[in-house]
Amino acid sequence: MLYSKRPAVLLVSLAVLLTSLTACNNSQTAKNLQQAFAADPRLKDSPVAIDDKGSLTQQSPPTQATVQLPTDFPKEIPLYSNANLQQITPSSGPDGSISTRWLSSDPSNLIASFYSQQFQANNWQILQQPTDQQAGSFEARRNDLQLKVTIQPKSVTNAAPNQPQTATEVVIDYTRNTTAAAQTPTSNDVPQPGNTQIAPVSPTETAQPTATPEPQNTATPEATQPSTTPEPRNTISSSIQEFSDLSKVSPELRQYIQDLAANGVLSVGSNAAKNNNTTTNEFQPGKIITRREYARWLVAANNAIFANNPAKQIRLAPASVQSAFSDLSKTDPDFPAIQGLAEAGIIPSPLSGDSTAVLFRPDAPLTREQLILWKLPLDTRQALPSANLDTVKQTWGFQDAAKIDPQALRTVLADFQNGEKSNIRRVFGYTTLFQPKKPVTRAEAATALWYFGTQGDGVSAQEALKLKR
């Protein structure tokens, strides 16, 4: 009986103790008891461990490891200043590439603009770039360095009230390719008939072969082509500059560049880079072309192809006329060509009634819609057809037709009516996306300028070479 009463006695004692504490809530005894049973505030931010004797020991908080770039990280790779390195992942593949992951609180379009400017300013060959300047990947090459920069907006979970709710992830993948020049050509570098040299070589090594299976390729540069030959290939004179990096161009576009070079178009203004009093013979096909350079090529190509027809040539403007653009000085080396296009009404300017085109922006990248807007008047040589957004959608079927500037809609429609001689078809092939704001490469610009005219009445750069002979 005494044993069974012990739990009841304990409960009664505990109740009396709690009642006493409640009654003496403000007494010193109650405060001492509360402090005795309170948690140690020193353990709030520091973890504890139990040693082999059962005692609690305080541990120092772990320090966060800082990710460091490899010591051999290429210095030529541009790094966005407001981005923190998060991770480095060596590749397990045979190419030996290394991936670095960065995080920035800045918006993705700002970072994309940074890399676009850095690549163009530092002579990177841009192979691919984002289409909307918001997210996507840049692929670029400089010497033996292959680079891919992927920009992707991210949402931040559990962000503090005073912290950004979004962030941008930047992944930089890079690899060295020291044997690129010595590698065997891939299927994308299939040579044109009569041009057996693929890897970049000196001009003396790109001489024509002495004999080929094709009859039209057996003539030397000085020989006269047979009158029955339909399309002579690779008949560039040895006096014309040849480019050592055309193996980087797809076979479909390579001949267009060679024919324009043979007409002396691409040497106008000397595109060769000067370094220590030496020049290179690289064409840089993947480099973005500027508005000034395209204007220069446009006039040169038109006048070279119509060398025997002065009525179709563009007259270069003299320095005595007033500039149509406030940002184009008369002393600018490209002033005669650009002003000549404005005087002829080929490009928008205040002279053609466009009061908004007071700036030419000569060093801005040329876009796809501008390439067509400037070229089509020299193809049709007549008033352009009326066009609206629905008409362009029905003809071309472009999914992004709404992004085309209204001023360029008529030229895009007229280009469709040109059939197989369409600039868009020749330059970009079959596509359901026009991407009108996308910058144009030098190879694409040269391809557009290879032919002037309509489907039934026109002249190519190759036919112009025949007329010269």
List strands and helices in order, with pairings.
Blueprint: H1 6-23, H2 28-37, E1 48-50, E2 56-58, E3 84-90, E4 98-104, H3 108-121, E5 125-128, E6 136-142, E7 145-155, E8 166-176, H4 251-262, E9 274-275, E10 278-279, H5 291-305, H6 335-343, H7 368-380, H8 389-396, H9 409-416, H10 423-428, H11 442-448, E11 451-453, E12 458-460, H12 461-468
Antiparallel strand pairs: 1-2, 3-4, 4-8, 5-6, 6-7, 7-8, 9-10, 11-12
Helix pairs in contact: 4-11, 5-6, 7-9, 8-9
Q: If strands are numbered along the chain, what order do they take across the biggest sheet?
A: 3-4-8-7-6-5
Largest sheet: number of strands, sense, barrel closure: 6 strands, antiparallel
Helix and strand sequence: HHEEEEHEEEEHEEHHHHHHHEEH
Count helical runs. 12
Low-confidence stretches: 180-240, 269-278
Structural class: alpha+beta
Summarize the structure.
The chain is built from twelve helices and twelve strands.
